[in-house]
Amino acid sequence: MKLLFLIANVSIVSALVVTPFQTGSSRTSSLVQVSAVAVTKEESVQKIGKKETSLPLSRKGEKVILSDVPQHLPWPEEDDSEMKRQKRMANAERALDVFVVGLSHHKAAVETREKLAIPEAEWEEAARDIVSSSDGAIDEAAVLSTCNRFELYFSAKDARAGLAAASKYLQERSKLPMSTLRESLFMLSSDHASHHALRVAAGLDSLVVGEGQILSQMKQCYYHATASGAGGKVTTRLLNAAVAAGKRARDETDIAKGAVSISSAAYELAEDRLKAQALNGLPLTLKDAKITIVGAGTMTRLLLTHMASHGVTKFTLINRSEPRAREMADEFAESHGCEIQVIATHGDNNVIREHTKDAHVVFTSTSSDSFVFAKEHLTDRTNPLMLVDISVPRNVDPACDELDSVVAYDVDSLKAVVDRNTAKRKREIVQAEILLEEEKRAFRGWLDSLSAVPAITKLQKKAEALRLAEMKRHNAKLQHLSPREIEAVERLSRGIVSKLLHGPMSALRDNKQRTDNKQGVATPLRLVKNMFNL
Predict the structure, then answer these.
(1) How distant, in Å, are the alpha carbons of 38, 115, 154, 297, 441 from that of 389?
(2) Distance, CA of 249 to CA of 253 (rounded, Å)
């Protein structure tokens, strides 16, 4: 008879599918306190807050079954860990998405880019400032600042508030009117922001397509985002995915084959202009010219490498401090047979101008935020001079080009060289884009899975609360069962709930089932939320 009664009561759990769940009600609060398993009388006394409350019980042999529960029992005080857990879950309800705001050589002139340029040593501080000054609109941030672009990668829950906070920061830093700044800015979100980051790292968005220096700079962006603590989980994952995608594009395509850096493009520009006799009196080739390079950083190293590979080996190298320049000169003397005269300025720019009086071509690449060569510095010059400035902020005043004896170029002047090289690699660009699309889908799948975690937790809690509510509702019918039979009902009800939830939760966890929202089809996450009213 008891076995038949047990089987008959299996119908209890079927109500889980159709019974409405009243979230936030006092009834719900009491249900989660209930357990349908047998307990002893001593176990019926529970501490609630600072008071002891005895629950009414019905005796059955030596065990008792919960028969009724007060509907308005106060909740026990939560400890800090539980409150923190609930806070994390609440924050996770609104998932972070990725955004990028910035400007680059595509739309912004160099005079605009230099107003936002940030030295690498200050990237971490800038990222922290962006987060702290956003009033909570921006959760995570990272800065990438190069000679051809300034980009702010960040994560936020509210797209409108996040983009507004980022724009405000850029406007305050550049001190440009917002109307002027917006003409040069680009703003990307979600899929577009993710794809952009990957294209940048792969060199597809560079002035020189396929150039390798941007991948190194993106690695540094990732490093500083992690070190600053401002990058957070989502933004650093995006940057890490971008670096991996950039490596893959170079390994699996010929996008970098024959590619040139900004420094090597500067060499090609200078060589082309000399052959075209851009200024009378200059030599026809760089091999015959007196060349001075100002600055001893990464760009100079790349420039020296490229020129040495073309047989140009005699230079004058001017730097603020001597040790770094001396080390570079000795390195290239040993590896490429270069003859390099080293001059230290110790912060006096007059030394630069003094030692470039006889130069034919001067390349500048320093971190100075003011002009090394201004028009007034060269008004008395009579012998011809070519200035090639590959710095941002610029080291050469554009007005120098107005002088009869001077011809000046900056990074925006490299586009003719770049266009010629880009045309040779169009087929590789298509192949690289296919790889980047795969990497983007992997990142977006991971990002979507984060928003599924709180949904899964809510679904499990809701189902368990429904199960307990039904067990309590049929508690009177279960009083004649033995403890073993009650435990069997418990296991049975939990098993049915688990099997019912298996399909929805598997869909939430499976990144491959993510559907492109552009097609107008709801994702599994949205479907489950709507279906179960989460």
Answers:
(1) 83, 17, 31, 14, 39
(2) 6
Beta strand 149-156 with 97-104: parallel, antiparallel or unpaired? antiparallel
For 515, list phi and psi in degrees, rounded to 5.
-110, 140
Cβ proximity of 151 and 239 under 8 Å: no
Three-class SS of 143-168? EEECCCEEEEEEEECCHHHHHHHHHH
Active site residue 147: yes
Residue with tokens 């470039």: 356
Selecting among 147, 221, 338, 400, the annotated active-site residue is 147
**Are 384 and 408 a contacting pair, CB within 8 Å?**
no
What whole-number distance in Å separates Cα of residue 473 and Cα of residue 73? 18
Q: Look up residue 510 and give its two tokens.
A: 């499976």
Q: When comparing pLDDT for 59 and 422, which is higher?
A: 422
Burial of 380 (0-12, 13-18, 19+ CB in 10 A): exposed
pTM, full prediction: 0.61
Q: How far apart are CA 118 and CA 152, in angstroms?
A: 11
Name the H helices within 183-231.
Answer: 190-202, 213-228
Tokens, residue 363 = 């390349």
Angle made by CA atoms 199, 203, 207, in degrees to the nearest 5: 110
469: tokens are 């509510």
Per DSSP, the residues of 89-153 read HHHHHS--EEEEEEEETTT--HHHHTTT---GGGHHHHHHHHHHTTTTS-SEEEEEE-SSEEEEE
Tens of pLDDT, residues 433-444: 999 999 999 999
Exposure of 160 by Cβ count < 10 A (0-12 exposed, 13-18 middle, 19+ buried)? exposed
- The DSSP line for 404-464 is TTEEEE-GGGGHHHHHHHHHTTHHHHHHHHHHHHHHHHHHHHHHHHHHHHHHHHHHHHHHH
Q: Residue 213: pLDDT above 90?
A: no
Strand 149-156 relative to strand 140-145: parallel, antiparallel, unpaired? antiparallel
> Euclidean distance between the first and final Cα of the chain, in Å?
41
Q: Burial of 99 by CB count in 10 Å (0-12 exposed, 13-18 middle, 19+ buried)?
A: buried
pLDDT at 96 over 90: no
Which of the 8 DSSP states describes residue 76?
P
Partner residues linked to 57 by β-bridges = 66
Integer Cα distance of 36 and 58 in angstroms? 13
In tens, the pLDDT along 455-503 reads: 778 888 888 888 999 888 888 888 888 989 889 998 999 999 888 888 8
Structure tokens at 251: 């390994």
Gap between the Cα atoms of 258 and 192, Å rounded: 29
Which structure tokens are listed for 317? 């190298």
**Residue in 53, 9, 7 with CA at minimum distance from that of residue 30:** 53
Distance between CA 276 and CA 473 in Å, rounded?
93
Please give the Cα distance from 19 to 30 (Å, whole number). Answer: 17
